[in-house]
Design goal:
By secondary structure, the protein is an alpha+beta fold. It has one domain: Beta Polymerase, domain 2 (2-Layer Sandwich), CATH 3.30.460.10. It is built from four helices and four strands. It has a four-stranded mixed sheet with strand order 3-2-1-4, sandwiched between helices. Helix 3 links the parallel strand 2 and strand 3. The relative contact order is 0.23.
Length: 97
Amino acid sequence: MRRDETLKILSEHKDDLREKFGVTSIAIFGSTARDEARPDSDVDTLIEIERPAGFFEVARVKFYLEDLLDTKVDLATPGALRAPIRERIYQDLIYVR
């Protein structure tokens, strides 16, 4: 999926993500953010949620995004990122406006 298309779709549904799941920010990273995604690439996303979120809440957001983007989504939260990979992710990070 192309970077611009992904950002447009996510931007159009940002309010829904906040209302349904409490998502306060969403960003993409990886091949989609670099606009290097292949047809079989997933969309790597980083979300922040206003209330404490367990596994099932994060999974609900993941499934919602997969339906929305019609592709596989890898979903992470800032607290789940370990130091070695965090720096690499933050280099690619593009926040949805």
